[in-house]
Each structure stands twice: as C-alpha cells, then as structure tokens.
Amino acid sequence: MRLSRPALPRALRRATAGVATLAAAGLLAATAPAALAAPSPTLAAPDIPLANVKAHLSQFQSIATANGGNRAHGRPGYKASIDYAKAKLDAAGFTTTVQQFTSSGATGYNLIADWPGGDPNKVLMAGAHLDSVSSGPGINDNGSGSAGVLETALAVSRAQLEPTKHLRFAWWGAEELGLIGSKYYVNNLPSTERSKVSGYLNFDMIGSPNPGYFVYDDDPVIEKTFKDYYAGLNVPTEIETEGDGRSDHASFKNVGIPVGGLFTGASRTKSSAQAQKWGGTAGQAFDRCYHSSCDTTANINDTALDRNSDAIAHAVWTLGTETPVPPGDTYENTADVAIPDNGAAVTSTVNVTGRTGNAPATLKADVDIRHTWRGDVVVDLLAPDGTAYRLKNSSGNDSADNIIATYTVNASSEAANGAWKLRVQDVAAQDTGYINSWKLTF
Ligand code: TRP
Ligand code: ZN
Ligand code: CA
Known about the structure:
Elements: H1 10-13, H2 22-26, E1 34-35, H3 50-66, H4 76-91, E2 95-103, E3 106-115, E4 119-129, H5 139-159, E5 165-172, H6 180-187, H7 191-194, E6 197-203, E7 214-215, H8 220-233, E8 238-239, H9 249-253, E9 259-263, H10 272-278, H11 302-320, E10 330-333, E11 337-339, E12 346-352, E13 363-371, E14 377-382, E15 388-392, E16 403-409, E17 418-426, E18 433-441
Parallel strand pairs: 4-5, 4-6, 6-9, 7-8
Antiparallel strand pairs: 1-10, 2-3, 3-5, 7-9, 10-18, 11-18, 12-17, 13-16, 13-18, 14-15, 14-17
Helix pairs in contact: 3-4, 3-5, 5-11, 8-11
C-alpha cells in the first residue's frame, strides 16, 4: 500500500541530474562493453573412426557367440568383455583397475581406466555399462556405448592428450540388474574422492537401429556441450524422457555429481514428427530388438553410432581441456536504459563468455538505477536460460531515490556463459528513472 505521495513527481519538484538525459540514453544500444574474462581455450576433438567402434562391436558379438549368446552379469561372456576392453586400455597407457562386487550370488566387475595427468581434484568421467541381458548379445544395449567410450579413450591415447581435468573412463557391470556396478562404485568412493568428480557422462544405447537423438536434461553445461555438437551437425535433438534414472548416471546423480549423456531410444515408438526430422520409421520402436536375442551387430544404425561416438569425444575434449577462469571477473553494461513510468519492463544485457561451468553460488550483481522514487521499481536478474532471480520488490512506502546496491544471487544451477539481463520495471505512476549501469562479478 502506498503512503502519501505528492501530486507532482519529484523529478519536477527537484532538479535531478541525469533524468534530463533519459531520452537520449534510451536510444543507446544495450551492449556489454566490458568482458574481462580470459578466453577459455579448449582443444578440438578428433574424429572417432566408425570402423574402429564397429570393430569393438564385432568383438563383443564374437564374445557373446562363443559364450552362450550373451555377455550378461555372472556369465563368461561378461568377463571376456572386461578382458577385451582392459587389454586395449592397458596397451594404450591407461592405468586400469578391475573392481569386483557380488550380486545375485555371482561376481561382477567394473573396469576403471585412468588417463595419467590432469588436475586430480577435477575428475571428468565417461562411462557405459558393459553387461548385456541374458537373452541376447547386447550390441546396441550396450555394446554401442561401451565401444564408443572405449574408442574415445583410445583416441585420448593416440593424441597423447594433456587434459586440464583428470580423465577417467568406466565400464559398469550388472547395470541390467539395477545399476548394481555403478552404485557399488559410487558407494565405495570415499566422499573426498566423490567431491572431486566434476562430471559423469553416460552412454547407454547410442546406435539404435531406428534412432532418435536424445540428450539427457541434467547438468546444463554438459547438456549444452552435447547440444552444441549436434547444432554443429544441424541435427535436431530432443530431451531424453524414456525413463530418467534408468541407467548408470542415476548412481552419480543421486550423490550430487553433475551428469549428462546421450541416448538413441529403446522400446518406445518413434513418432511421425520424429521420423520427419531424423528419418527412420514412424510407428516403430527406436530399437525393436531391445533386450532380445536380435540385438546383434545387425541391430546398429551406423550414422547414429558414428555421430554419438564423435559426440563423446567432443564432450571429453571440450570439458576435459578447458582452462579454469579465476573468480573475480566482472562483466558490465554502462549504457543507460530509460525506465518508462508505470510501464513495460526494460532490460540491459551483459554477455558473459569464456567462463567454464556454472555461475557461482555467490554471484554478485551490482546495480546502479537512478530513480526519483525507488519504491516504484521491481528488479530481476535473468539468467541466460531466462530464469528470473528477484533482486528487489516494489514497495509503496520506499520513497528514497535510486537503487545503488550489491545483490548476492545463488546462481549455481545456471550456466555461466550467455546473455544475462537486468530486468527493471516501474510499476507505479509519476516518478521515473533509468538504468545507469550494472555489472556481474563471478
Ligand atoms: N539399459 C537401459 C534400461 O534397460 C536402457 C534405457 C532405457 C535407457 N531407457 C533409458 C538408458 C534412458 C538411458 C536413458 O533401462
Ligand atoms: Zn542399457
Ligand atoms: Ca513510476
């Protein structure tokens, strides 16, 4: 409720410096003049040869064929798959660990491969479950993800990559029994080690024969990394919705580790809209051989497998080689923006570039708004994805001039890079003003 307000706005009662320049100021372009962050160079990923990925799939198929038609937990085909991948990784210079666990009365195995070097306090993980169901060889589910991650690891070795993050690749056992292997790994990781894992990338079914291109909707930075890759190919993606929590990323997500991943679809049916944008057959499952004996090397779409293998490498290179930007950088917009009296909201933008990861939990917004009755004004900070953070409400009895204040915002769920906006609205008649300047400190 508004307390008594003089009949004339204070701008007319008092000569207020700055207000006279509003008309001119309002026409100025609201570009961000100052972006002080150092660039964050990342190395470009190599092309992952499809033939190499398919050669791994042929080996997984041969292993299944020689071992009763599957590579399931507790069956000899599973251990043979572990041995195959481990031998490749050992020869390539990885430090490998086989972690044993017991499930349903059988010994299970996780394979962990560390690439020497990188910041031990910032571990980037990529993984895939290596077990099949017992009813088939599991070439799409999940030879595809296993082979894509394996060939990406081998590409790291071929490049003799010197990442900024420490890279760790993983192949999980007994996923098909309820994410058993990945849960075992996470549960046995001491909390100090857990907190060093800056991200986990999951690949489960990435070569479905009637493929969709699905990106997990989890950590925004990881998600954007995959979307950027696909944007570069001009291939549309959709958010993965065929069962969030149905693969090993859930084991990581459950303890607060940022996750992401790719998926080409399981038993769900491809819609006609999806067939239009991706090709393939509408009204048919993404993978008609899901969890069945026909999940063989014939059950793979090469284009999907090729794109997703390259996407794995893109994410590992992009997220694994980025140079951290130190805190304290500011991004400012000093262009004046007029705030119409009792009118529509106006915005001023700062473009944040060159940072890595999310915004801090203590993002500082320094706001300088000149106004003759600050109670009229509502101020929000808009993150690049449009999420609004209320900095200041209107108030009927706050008759002071100007809003010159520093607000601290927990923006830790927002990607740092992008167009941040200060949104200002004057919601009561008579007094008016302008955005003088504002800045963000990361
Ligand atoms: N192995 C998974 C499962 O059987 C396959 C799957 C279904 C999946 N939906 C998913 C994998 C969504 C990742 C995301 O449950
Ligand atoms: Zn799977
Ligand atoms: Ca007003």
